[in-house]
Amino acid sequence: MPLYEYYCEHCNGIFEAIRQMRDASDPSPCPECSREAPRMMSTFAAFTMRDGYPRRIPDKGTYWHMGKEVKQRAKRMKGFEHPELAKPKPTPRPKRGEVAASRDKARTEYGEAGYRDKWGVDQYGMRTAKTAKKKKNPRTLGG
Ligand SMILES: [Zn+2]
Hints:
By secondary structure, the chain is an alpha+beta fold. It has helices at residues 40-43, 96-119, 129-136, and strands at 3-8, 13-18, 28-29, 36-37, 47-50, 53-56, 63-65, 68-70. The termini are far apart. Zinc ion (ZN) binds at residues 8, 10-11, 13, 30, 32-33, 35.
């Protein structure tokens, strides 16, 4: 059976274990603390610095940001937050006062619109197309 290397984060130690090939990628218990230790291949990937950014070898053209793979280099970051990794911001909930204000505004506008529509004028007091059309084809009541 082949020999594999494992790394225990707890002990900060590397140990070797003989494992079945099919079990090689599974974590192995640490001989010191008997915690599950991952295989070194996955943990210790080779990195290179390019454009001031760590890139994993083999280079797939991707970048690594805080241990996470990203497609693009961060051009603008808030702190250390990469835009690709940043969670979408939750839409800010309007405050109670704002809701009431917008509701009042909408109600007022709706009321005014209804009023203007009734009299066939726009918000500047000018006659609307509706009124003009009505004038062209006046409807008489009762024929
Ligand atoms: Zn250990």
